[in-house]
Design goal:
mainly alpha; 0% strand
Length: 146
Amino acid sequence: MKEAEIRRLLAANLLCVLSIILTAVVPAFFLHGFTVLGTHLTWLCVCSVCVGTLNVTLHLVLKPNQSPKRRSFAHKISRFLKCCIYFFMSCILFHAIIVLYGAPLIESVTETFLFAVLLSTFTTLQCLCVLGPNVQTWIRVFSKNG
């Protein structure tokens, strides 16, 4: 990687960390009785939305130019829909993994699913922004010999 790309990646990750810190502090000014531990469902939602929005915005700002073929509106819509489907599938997968590791299946479905959404936001969303919905690219990047 070039030094400029490493600096942009570092800046993007620092902005993500800053957004997580801000989601623990800023909502207390707008929501009465907000605490990270007391209103953890609200915090999970706020944190997921802020980090997700920041990731997508940074991707749109820092993304290099694509070929003219890939700039068509139909291609962008189909790519967006595939990314949404993959993100939802990763949320379901993380939810199943969390339940298999001992989270209550019936009593805390909302908390467990929102935690799965938060994990997907931190992992899958960034990969979807960088790699796109191409399964072969994912296999090549995450395989042992890729």
